[in-house]
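Quick log. Single chain, no ligands specified.
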Amino acid sequence: MFSTILMGLTILFLVTTLYYFFSGHKYKKSYFQSTLFQKLFFAMLGFTFGFAVLYYLLSMEGDVVRVSTEEGKNGGENFLDYLYFSGVTILSVGYGDLVPVGKARFFALIQSAIGLLLPTAFFVSALSEKGGSSGEDAKNENESEQSSDNDGQTGS
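-> predicted structure:
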């Protein structure tokens, strides 16, 4: 019962971290924005620790990760093992020394997808803001171009 509540809170934390990352902030005029990079770093760090806690809580119900050997013994003996597994999963390293089993397989899949999508969103966001102007700026530029075109037409 207690582990179920903690898992629910952990999932809520992870969803909140996703919302924070994708909230409507705009960053302009640079390929590298330290603020955006810090957001990405802390989001990735939050997801790594959040999923490590989730794996640790799941381990209270049974094996979560096993050592990738013929014996297949339990690979998670303490929180640091789950933190390690979470880190190599979110960074898509996947050494293969620890293998998720049971419910953890689903969460490992979700975590690896987040580990691919967050940095991709970071780069797309950074490059799209540099490559073009924001929607507000583009709208203002279009209006000024139209008014100058109209001025040129009335003057003829």
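The chain is about 70% helix and 5% strand.
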